[in-house]
Amino acid sequence: MTREQLEHAIRAACDITDDTEVYVFGSQAILGQFPDVPDALRMSAEADISPKNRLDRIEELNAIGEDSLFHQEHGFYVHGVPITDAAKLPRNWENRTVRVPARAARELAGLCLDGHDLAASKLAAYREKDRDFVRTLLLEGLLKPRTLIARLRLLPVEPAERERLVRWVDVTMRAQ
Length: 176
Description:
Elements: H1 3-17, E1 21-24, H2 30-33, E2 46-51, H3 69-74, E3 77-80, H4 83-86, E4 98-101, E5 109-112, H5 115-125, H6 128-139, H7 145-152, H8 159-174
Parallel strand pairs: 1-5, 2-3
Antiparallel strand pairs: 1-2, 4-5
Helix pairs in contact: 5-6, 5-7, 7-8
C-alpha cells in the first residue's frame, strides 16, 4: 500500500460511515508518520480502520472490504473493526495519533497510530509477522528503542508480559 492508497482508503471509509475522522491502526498506519517507508513495511493490501465518531456504522465498511468490488478495482481494501476490540494500545495513544488529511472537498482525515504506539501494539500481539514488522522499523532507524520501551510500559498487559516485550527490544537491538 502507498500513502496515496491509504488516503483513498480513508476517504472511502469516511464517506461510507459518514464520519469526518477514522482511526488507522494496522501495519499500514505507519504510512501516516512515514509516507516513504521501505517496501518491506508496505506489503499489506489491508488498512485496518475504525470510525472515530460513527462506530455504529462500522459494518458498512464491508462494502470496501476484502474481495469487494473496491478491492478488485484498487488492489487494496479496508478492514473495518473497532480499534479497542482489535488492538492493545498504550495509555493515551489518542493524544499521539498522526493526522493524515484525505484531500477531499470536505475535511476528512485518518488518525494513524504513532509509530511507537503501533509497534507496541504489534509486539503485544506477539505474532511472528508483527515482530518482523517491528524489527524492520527498529533496524531502519524509524523508531527509537527507548521510546518504544516507554510505550511498552504503557500497555494494558501483565507486568511479566511487559518485561518480556522490553527484553525482546533489548535483544533485538543488541543483535543488530
